[in-house]
C-alpha cells in the first residue's frame, strides 16, 4: 500500500506539473501576442453625493507620467462623464470604472477616443490616443524565476524522491512556479479567469508552505501536531477566500473595488515577505541548535538563500508598495532577487557537493574585485583625458579594448592571490603540484611506493583525515584493501580484518560514492545495505569513494574522508581527485603489466608460433585480408596453388592478385557476414603469377608455368590450371567486431579428375553391358542376311546387275558385323595374357603400319623414344589398338588443315622408376573446351557422317584402364591436342590385369 500510494502521488504530481507547464506556456504566448488597450490612467469608483440619480462617479486615481492620458491633459482627480470610442461619434456615458475598460476595447490599440471630463465643476474634452499596455519587463523575468523553481523541484524529486521533505519541497517549488508564471492578460475569458485564480491561490499558499517546511526541516519540532500545521495555513486560506469573493462579486464592501484590490495586494505582500523572513529566522534557530555538520551546512544555505532573495525584494519593492508607492519599473526588477532562493536551495537540499556554494562565492569575490579594478582603471583614464565631457568614438573604443584586455589578467591575479593567502593558504602550493605529480605516476613501477606517495600528497593537499586504496582482485571479482593511511601518513590499523567491500562495484554508474554520516549510518545511501557493509563503511570512515578507471575498467577505488575540520570537500576537490584517480588506475595497470610482461611476451610468442605452424600445416591455401581487401596473411599452400610468393602478395589487393571474374565474386561478398562457398573455380597460374622478385621473394616454376615436383614418392607434372573450392568467411575479433575476412582455397583438382574417371568408368561399364546385349542380338540377323546374300549371289551368277547389289549387301553386312565386334571387344575384358613388353617397340610397329597414310597427307613425324625405358606388363595387340586409334585421330584432325599449314605428329616417351609416360601431340585444329570432357564417351564424335562411329577413344580409354594406366588430354582451339598416357612399370602390377 505504501508503494501504491507513492506511485499514485507521483502520477498526480506529474499530471499537475504537465498541466501547469502547458498553461504557463499558453499564458506566456498570450502575454506576448495580446495587445491590451490602455490610456495610462487608473480609474476608481467614488460615491457621488452631489447627484442622486448617479450613485457613483469615476475618478482618475492615478495618471502615469508620459502615458496617453497624461499627454492628453488628464489629471489626477478628473471625473470622466462620457467616452466616444471612435472619433466623431457620440459619447457613451461612463457610470462605473469597468465601463472605461470596455470602451477602450471598442476603441482598440492606437485608436482615438474622446473623453468628456469634469474638472472642478468645469467640463473639458480630451483627445486620447489609446496605446498598447506597457508590459513590464519584470513580468517576463518572473518566468525565469518560476522556471528555476520548477527545474530544481523536478531534479530533486525524481533523483531523491525518498529523501526527507522531498515531496513537500517539490510541491513548494510547483506552487512557486505557478505564482511566478501565471499572469492574467486582461482578455477576461474563462482561461484568463482560471490563470488569475491559480495565481492568487499560489501566491497566498507559497508562503504558508515555506513556513511549514522551515518548521519541519530537518525534523519536526517537539509537540508538533496536525492542528498546529493547520494553523500555519489559516491566514493564507482566509485571504484566498476573501480575495476570490471580492473578485467574483460575492463579498461587497464600502471601499471601491480598485481600493479593495490594493488592500488585498498589500496584505498579500505583507504576508509573503513576513512568511519568508519568519522562515529564515526559524532556519537560523535550527542551524544553531543542530550538531550534525551536513545538516548545519544545509540549514545555513537555506537561510542565506532565503535572506539573499527576500531582503532586497522587500527593501526595493515590498516596503515602498506597502507605504503607498506605485510600483515603478525599477521596483519591479527587484523580482530577480527572488531567484537566489531556488538557486541556493538546490545546493542545500541535494546534499551532494554542498561545499560548491563556497566555491561559487569564492569565484564571486574574484570577479567582483576584478570588475571593480577594471572600472577604477577606466575611470582613471577618463579623468586623465583633457575633455572628458566630449569623448570621441575612438576614445570609447580604446577604453573598451583596455577593459577587455585588462580584465582577464586581473581576474587571474586575484584568483591566485586569494587562493594563496585566503582560501587555501598553506595548501595552495600542494594543489599546484598535485596535477604535475599525477603525470609522474605512470613512470613508477613499484605499486606500494606509488600509493604511499599519492596518499601523503593527498593528506597534505586536501587536509583530509585519512585515505585508502582498494585494488581489484586479479583472479576473481571484487576489491580488497591495499593501503590505508592516517592523517600523519602512517599505515592505518583497522579493528576488523574482514571487510565487506561488496558496495564497491566493478562497473559503477555514479561518478563517485558519497556517505554523509559513516559513523552513525544515517545516510540515505547506506539505507537498506547489509549489516556487514554498514559496519565496513563505519570502520573505514571514508566519505568519498572514487573509481579509478582505465580503458573502461575499474582497477581500483580511492577512499577519502572529510577534512580535518569535519567539512565536506568542494567540487574543485572532487574534480581534482577524479583527475588523479585516472592516473592512479594507469599506475596500477602499468605495475601489473610490468610484473607480467615477460610471461605474457613468452606466452604470446609461443601462441604465435603455434598458430603459424597450424596455418602452415593445413593442406589448404589460406589468406587473410583486411576490410580494404589487402592481403595480411598468405600461407605456403596458397603460394603453391597460385605461384605467387608471400612477399609479393602481402599488402596487395585481391583484385590485383586474382582474375577479374574471381575478383567480382570477392567484391559481391565483401559486405556479407556469412560464410559462403564457391565450388570448382578454375585457377590458371599463367594469369596469376607476378613478375619475379629480387632477393628472397622469387616465384618458382619454368617459363610455361609448369615445374617438376615429387609427391608421395611419385614425380608428376605441376599443372598450369587447378580446380579449387573457395570458402569465404568473415574475420572477427573475440568481441564480434569484423576486421576482415578469410579465404580458404581447397585444391580439388585430383578429386575432380578422379570423379571424372569414375563417371567415365561408370559410363563405360553401362555401355559395355548394353553393347554386349546389342551385339549378341544383332549378330544373329546379320549372319542370316550375310548367308542368304551369298546364296542369292550364287543363284544369280550370270546377272551382273543383281550380283553387284548382293555384293553391296554383303559388304554392308560385314561392316555392321565389324561394328558389332568392336562393341563386343569394348564390352569384354581381354582374356589374353599380359607379358612384359617394350612400349617403344609397340609404338614403332604401329607407326610403321600407317607410314603410307601419313605420307599421303603430308604429315611429318617427330619421334623421341627414350631408350632404356622400363618394360611394362601388357597385351601388345591391345596396346597396338590404342596407339592406332590415337594416330588415326591425329591424321583426321590434320587432314582438314588448309594447304601450307604445318602438319606434325610428335611422339615422346619418358621412363621413370615406377612408370612410363607417352605423349602424342598433333598440330591439328584442337578440341573445343566444352568437348574435352566428352571425348571418351562412347559414340561421341566430331567427324562427319560415314567417317567414324565414336567408339575409338572410348575403346582406347578402356584398354588403358585395363593396363592400370591413365590417359588425359590437353588442348586449346587452334593449337592442336596433346594426349598423355602413363603405364606402370613391369615391377608394378596393373590394377586391372
TrEMBL record:
InterPro entries: GAF-like_dom_sf, HATPase_C_sf, HATPase_dom, His_kinase_dom, HisK_dim/P_dom, HisK_dim/P_sf, PAS, PAS-like_dom_sf. Residues 773-987 form the Histidine kinase domain. It is an enzyme of class 2 (transferase). Residues 607-661 form the PAS domain. Its EC number is 2.7.13.3. Keywords: ATP-binding, Kinase, Membrane, Nucleotide-binding, Phosphoprotein, Transferase, Transmembrane, Transmembrane helix, Two-component regulatory system. Residues 694-714 are annotated as: Disordered. Gene3D superfamilies: 1.10.287.130, 2.30.42.10, 3.30.450.40, Histidine kinase-like ATPase, C-terminal domain, PAS domain. This is histidine kinase. It comes from Paludibaculum fermentans.
Amino acid at each position: 500500500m505504501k508503494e501504491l500510494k507513492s506511485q499514485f502521488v507521483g502520477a498526480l504530481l506529474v499530471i499537475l506539473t504537465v498541466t501547469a507547464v502547458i498553461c504557463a506556456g499558453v499564458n506566456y504566448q498570450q502575454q506576448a501576442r495580446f495587445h491590451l488597450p490602455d490610456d495610462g490612467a487608473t480609474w476608481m469608483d467614488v460615491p457621488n453625493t452631489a447627484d442622486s440619480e448617479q450613485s457613483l462617479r469615476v475618478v482618475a486615481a492615478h495618471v502615469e507620467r508620459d502615458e496617453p492620458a497624461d499627454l492628453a491633459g488628464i489629471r489626477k482627480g478628473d471625473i470622466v462623464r462620457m467616452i466616444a470610442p471612435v472619433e466623431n461619434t457620440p459619447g457613451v456615458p461612463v457610470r462605473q470604472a469597468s465601463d472605461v475598460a470596455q470602451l477602450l476595447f471598442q476603441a482598440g490599440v492606437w485608436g482615438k477616443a474622446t473623453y468628456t471630463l469634469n474638472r472642478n465643476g468645469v467640463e473639458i474634452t480630451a483627445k486620447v490616443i489609446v496605446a498598447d499596455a506597457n508590459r513590464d519587463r519584470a513580468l517576463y523575468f518572473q518566468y525565469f524565476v518560476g522556471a528555476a523553481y520548477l527545474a530544481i523541484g523536478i531534479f530533486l524529486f525524481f533523483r531523491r524522491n525518498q529523501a526527507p521533505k522531498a515531496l513537500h519541497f517539490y510541491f513548494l517549488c510547483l506552487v512557486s512556479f505557478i505564482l511566478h508564471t501565471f499572469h492574467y492578460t486582461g482578455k477576461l475569458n474563462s482561461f484568463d479567469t482560471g490563470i488569475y485564480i491559480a495565481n492568487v491561490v499560489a501566491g497566498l499558499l507559497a508562503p504558508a508552505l515555506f513556513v511549514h517546511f522551515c518548521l519541519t526541516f530537518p525534523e519536526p519540532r517537539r509537540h508538533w501536531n496536525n492542528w498546529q500545521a493547520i494553523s500555519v495555513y489559516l491566514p493564507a486560506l482566509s485571504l484566498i477566500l476573501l480575495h476570490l469573493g471580492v473578485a467574483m462579486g460575492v463579498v461587497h464592501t464600502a471601499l471601491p473595488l480598485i481600493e479593495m484590490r490594493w488592500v488585498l495586494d498589500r496584505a498579500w505582500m505583507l504576508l509573503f515577505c513576513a512568511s519568508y523572513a519568519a522562515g529564515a529566522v526559524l532556519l537560523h534557530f535550527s542551524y544553531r541548535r543542530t550538531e550534525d555538520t551536513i545538516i548545519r551546512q544545509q540549514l545555513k544555505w537555506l537561510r542565506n538563500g532565503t535572506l539573499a532573495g527576500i531582503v532586497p525584494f522587500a527593501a526595493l519593492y515590498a516596503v515602498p508598495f506597502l507605504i503607498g508607492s506605485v510600483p515603478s519599473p525599477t521596483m519591479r526588477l527587484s523580482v530577480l532577487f527572488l531567484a537566489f532562493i531556488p538557486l541556493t536551495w538546490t545546493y542545500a537540499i541535494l546534499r551532494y557537493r554542498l561545499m560548491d556554494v563556497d566555491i561559487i562565492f569564492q569565484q564571486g569575490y574574484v570577479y567582483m574585485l576584478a570588475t571593480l579594478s577594471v572600472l577604477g582603471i577606466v575611470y582613471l583614464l577618463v579623468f586623465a583625458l583633457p575633455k572628458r565631457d566630449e569623448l570621441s568614438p575612438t576614445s570609447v573604443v580604446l577604453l573598451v579594448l583596455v577593459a577587455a584586455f585588462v580584465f582577464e589578467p586581473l581576474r587571474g591575479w586575484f584568483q591566485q592571490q586569494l587562493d594563496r593567502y585566503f582560501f587555501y593558504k598553506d595548501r595552495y602550493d600542494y594543489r599546484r603540484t598535485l596535477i604535475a605529480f599525477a603525470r609522474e605516476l605512470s613512470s613508477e613501477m613499484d605499486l606500494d611506493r606509488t600509493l604511499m606517495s599519492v596518499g601523503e600528497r593527498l593528506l597534505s593537499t586536501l587536509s583530509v583525515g585519512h585515505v585508502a586504496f582498494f585494488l581489484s582482485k586479479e583472479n576473481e571479482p571484487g576489491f580488497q584493501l591495499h593501503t590505508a593511511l592516517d592523517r600523519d601518513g602512517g599505515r592505518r590499523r583497522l579493528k576488523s580484518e574482514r571487510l565487506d567491500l561488496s558496495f564497491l562495484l566493478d562497473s559503477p554508474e555514479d561518478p563517485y560514492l558519497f556517505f554523509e554520516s559513516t559513523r552513525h549510518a544515517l545516510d540515505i545511501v547506506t539505507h537498506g545495505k547489509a549489516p556487514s557493509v554498514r559496519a565496513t563503511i563505519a570502520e573505514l570512515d571514508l566519505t568519498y569513494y572514487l573509481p579509478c578507471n582505465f580503458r573502461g575498467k575499474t582497477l581500483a577505488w580511492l577512499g577519502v574522508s572529510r577534512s580535518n575540520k569535519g567539512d565536506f570537500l568542494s567540487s574543485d576537490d572532487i574534480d581534482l581527485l577524479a583527475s588523479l584517480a585516472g592516473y592512479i588506475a594507469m599506475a596500477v595497470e602499468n605495475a601489473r603489466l610490468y610484473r607480467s610482461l615477460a610471461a605474457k611476451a613468452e606466452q604470446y610468442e609461443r601462441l604465435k608460433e603455434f598458430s603459424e605452424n597450424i596455418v602452415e600445416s593445413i593442406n589448404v591455401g589460406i589468406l587473410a585480408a583486411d576490410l580494404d581487401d589487402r592481403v595480411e596473411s598468405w600461407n605456403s599452400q596458397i603460394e603453391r596453388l597460385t605461384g605467387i610468393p608471400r612477399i609479393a602478395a602481402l599488402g596487395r589487393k585481391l583484385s590485383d592478385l586474382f582474375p577479374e571474374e574471381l575478383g567480382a565474386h570477392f567484391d559481391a561478398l565483401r559486405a556479407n557476414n556469412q560464410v559462403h562457398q564457391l565450388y570448382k573455380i578454375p585457377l590458371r597460374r599463367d594469369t596469376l603469377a607476378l613478375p619475379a622478385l629480387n632477393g628472397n621473394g622469387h616465384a618458382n616454376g619454368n617459363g610455361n608455368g609448369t615445374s617438376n615436383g615429387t609427391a608421395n614418392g611419385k614425380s608428376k607434372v605441376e599443372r598450369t590450371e587447378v580446380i579449387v573450392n573457395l570458402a569465404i568467411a568473415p574475420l572477427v575479433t573475440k568481441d564480434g567486431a569484423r576486421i576482415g575476412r578469410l579465404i580458404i582455397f581447397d585444391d580439388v583438382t585430383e578429386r575432380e579428375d578422379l570423379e571424372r574417371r569414375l563417371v567415365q568408368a561408370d559410363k563405360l561399364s553401362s555401355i559395355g553391358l548394353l553393347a554386349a546385349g546389342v551385339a549378341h542380338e544383332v549378330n544373329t540377323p546379320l549372319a542370316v542376311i550375310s548367308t542368304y546374300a551369298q546364296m542369292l549371289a550364287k543363284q544369280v551368277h550370270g546377272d551382273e546387275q543383281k550380283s553387284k547389289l548382293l555384293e553391296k549387301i554383303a559388304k554392308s553386312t560385314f561392316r555392321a558385323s565389324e561394328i558389332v565386334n568392336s562393341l563386343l571387344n569394348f564390352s569384354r575384358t581381354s582374356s589374353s595374357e599380359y607379358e612384359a613388353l617394350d612400349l617403344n617397340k609397340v609404338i614403332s610397329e604401329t607407326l610403321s603400319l600407317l607410314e603410307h597414310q601419313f605420307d599421303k597427307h603430308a604429315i611429318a613425324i617427330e619421334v623421341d623414344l627414350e631408350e632404356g625405358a622400363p618394360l611394362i606388363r601388357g597385351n601388345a595387340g591391345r596396346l597396338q589398338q590404342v596407339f592406332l586409334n590415337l594416330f588415326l585421330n591425329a591424321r583426321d584432325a590434320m587432314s582438314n588443315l588448309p594447304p601450307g599449314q604445318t602438319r606434325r605428329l610428335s611422339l615422346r616417351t619418358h621412363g621413370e622408376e615406377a612408370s612410363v609416360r607417352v605423349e602424342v601431340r598433333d598440330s591439328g585444329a584442337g578440341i573445343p573446351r566444352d568437348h574435352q570432357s566428352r571425348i571418351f564417351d562412347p559414340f561421341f564424335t566430331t567427324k562427319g557422317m560415314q567417317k567414324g562411329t565414336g567408339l575409338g577413344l572410348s575403346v582406347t580409354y578402356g584398354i588403358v584402364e585395363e593396363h592400370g594406366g591413365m590417359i588425359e588430354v590437353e588442348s586449346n582451339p587452334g593449337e592442336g591436342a596433346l594426349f598423355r598416357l602413363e603405364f606402370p612399370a613391369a615391377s608394378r602390377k596393373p590394377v586391372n590385369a
